[in-house]
Amino acid sequence: MIYTCTLNPSVDYQIETKQLELGTLNRVQDTAFYPGGKGINVSRVLKNLGVDSTALGFIGGFTGTFILERLNEEGINTDFVIHDEPTRINMKVKTAKEETEVNGSGASIPKTYQEQLIQKVEELTADDYFVLSGSLPPSISFDFYEKLSAMCDEKGVSLILDIPNRSLKDLLSFRPFLIKPNQAELSEILEKEINTKEEAIKGAKELIQFGARNVIVSMGAEGAIFVNEQFTAKAENPTGTLKSSVGAGDSLVGGFLASYNKSNDFLEAFQYGVASGSATAFSNDLCKKDAVDQLVSQVLIKR
Ligand SMILES: Nc1ncnc2c1ncn2[C@@H]1O[C@H](COP(=O)(O)OP(=O)(O)O)[C@@H](O)[C@H]1O
Ligand SMILES: O=P(O)(O)OC[C@H]1O[C@](O)(COP(=O)(O)O)[C@@H](O)[C@@H]1O
């Protein structure tokens, strides 16, 4: 079974407006609410691609209820720890020119609730994948990532890490099956500029040395690279019109896992993941299977 874990979920409030001007009244053209947070997005993408998963993490309040209802409607298994404070709301503003994001910091999670989540992860076995994705809420420290990663390592659970944290390097000794920093995150982790695919491949190889088993660096409109101990590959995106790139990285992870789960083939999974990321970038919500299947042959992979 694939488990996703979102420690800091969100309701994503997407706004489309002709322009966004600070210090004045802006009126919007279009709005939509989506259940958000990186692990939740991975579960939603997996479901869209025909693969079941169970979404774990913390949710609470009226926003948490919204997330739970939407995931239930979509037929996604959930096993969240429910707390009292509302889950955060993240604003995603799209104008004709650019995308702007304002992410909340997150709810306060008491220690007893943190312990409840640990108990759920205790149940996982070596047949499972555990996708630990997204930021930490303010009341939880980096040790929590360490604790969950160490548990996966001990039990032989395949760990996928997609955390926007410069200390990701400190988790690589737990031998994650896959990590997926984006270009900016890789720069932060390695404390150097990453501008090209060649630089990203070099950087990803450093992360393999630290213990990661497979590394994908996503590079937005430029595509992505894949590195493991056996080979490296570059991917170019298919062409299309950008609608919203929110969740593109999570879609890459979801698409990769959906394909790898069936084929055990890294290159095929990488290609399908990139097609999923692009299909999300070309739509308002997360990618749907038809769109991914249409794009996949247009993703150019070079080993
Ligand atoms: N503008 C775009 N056009 C086509 N594909 C895109 C675009 N933005 C993102 N993607 C696809 O989605 C993947 C993940 O996007 P990226 O923005 O790098 O991740 P994150 O959301 O984690 O920052 C990219 O590697 C690419 O394949
Ligand atoms: O936990 P963080 O880093 O604040 O990210 C949460 C946000 O990231 C998202 O999961 C989207 O992530 P990506 O665009 O990186 O795939 C949103 O749904 C959510 O608002």
TrEMBL record:
<dbReference type="GO" id="GO:2001059">
    <property type="term" value="P:D-tagatose 6-phosphate catabolic process"/>
</dbReference>
<keyword id="KW-0547">Nucleotide-binding</keyword>
<dbReference type="GO" id="GO:0005524">
    <property type="term" value="F:ATP binding"/>
</dbReference>
<keyword id="KW-0423">Lactose metabolism</keyword>
<dbReference type="InterPro" id="IPR017583">
    <property type="entry name" value="Tagatose/fructose_Pkinase"/>
</dbReference>
<keyword id="KW-0808">Transferase</keyword>
<dbReference type="InterPro" id="IPR011611">
    <property type="entry name" value="PfkB_dom"/>
</dbReference>
<dbReference type="InterPro" id="IPR002173">
    <property type="entry name" value="Carboh/pur_kinase_PfkB_CS"/>
</dbReference>
<dbReference type="GO" id="GO:0044281">
    <property type="term" value="P:small molecule metabolic process"/>
</dbReference>
<feature type="domain" description="Carbohydrate kinase PfkB">
    <location>
        <begin position="13"/>
        <end position="282"/>
    </location>
</feature>
<dbReference type="GO" id="GO:0005988">
    <property type="term" value="P:lactose metabolic process"/>
</dbReference>
<dbReference type="GO" id="GO:0009024">
    <property type="term" value="F:tagatose-6-phosphate kinase activity"/>
</dbReference>
<dbReference type="Pfam" id="PF00294">
    <property type="entry name" value="PfkB"/>
</dbReference>
<dbReference type="InterPro" id="IPR029056">
    <property type="entry name" value="Ribokinase-like"/>
</dbReference>
<protein>
    <recommendedName>
        <fullName>Tagatose-6-phosphate kinase</fullName>
        <ecNumber>2.7.1.144</ecNumber>
    </recommendedName>
</protein>
<dbReference type="GO" id="GO:0008662">
    <property type="term" value="F:1-phosphofructokinase activity"/>
</dbReference>
<comment type="similarity">
    <text>Belongs to the carbohydrate kinase pfkB family.</text>
</comment>
<comment type="function">
    <text>Catalyzes the ATP-dependent phosphorylation of fructose-l-phosphate to fructose-l,6-bisphosphate.</text>
</comment>
<dbReference type="GO" id="GO:0016052">
    <property type="term" value="P:carbohydrate catabolic process"/>
</dbReference>
<dbReference type="InterPro" id="IPR022463">
    <property type="entry name" value="1-PFruKinase"/>
</dbReference>
<keyword id="KW-0067">ATP-binding</keyword>
<dbReference type="GO" id="GO:0005829">
    <property type="term" value="C:cytosol"/>
</dbReference>
<comment type="pathway">
    <text>Carbohydrate metabolism; D-tagatose 6-phosphate degradation; D-glyceraldehyde 3-phosphate and glycerone phosphate from D-tagatose 6-phosphate: step 1/2.</text>
</comment>
<keyword id="KW-0418">Kinase</keyword>
<comment type="similarity">
    <text>Belongs to the carbohydrate kinase PfkB family. LacC subfamily.</text>
</comment>
